[in-house]
Amino acid sequence: MNAKFEDLPDILTLEQVCGLLQVHPNTLRNWDRNGTLKAIRIGVRKARRYKKSEIIKLIEE
Questions:
Q1: How far apart are CA 41 and CA 20, in angstroms?
Q2: Pairing of strands 11-13, 40-42
Q3: Which of 10, 12, 38, 60 has most Cβ atoms within 10 angstroms of its Cβ?
Q4: What is the pLDDT of residues 16-57, one digit of tens each?
């Protein structure tokens, strides 16, 4: 596993994932809609959160 992932929590925010993958937030939203990278929806606002393991899997593919 890449060293930059080791210090991260198991659940990541949209902003954290944007920084890691170097993509625009709308790209992540589109990936959630089309199933490329599914988000976990939490809270009243249904904020998107992502599993670190899913991010790693996406990068390794």
A1: 20
A2: unpaired
A3: 12
A4: 999 999 999 999 999 999 999 999 999 999 999 999 999 999
Q: Which amino acid is at 52?
A: K
Determine contact, residues 53/60, Cβ cutoff 8 Å: no
Q: Which residues constitute the domain of residue 18?
A: 3-60
What domain count does the chain have? Answer: 1
Which structure tokens are listed for 36? 């490329």
What band does 61 get if pLDDT is binned at 50, 70 and 90? confident
* End-to-end CA separation in angstroms for the chain: 13
CA gap 34, 30 in Å, rounded: 6
User: Does pTM surpass 0.70?
Assistant: yes
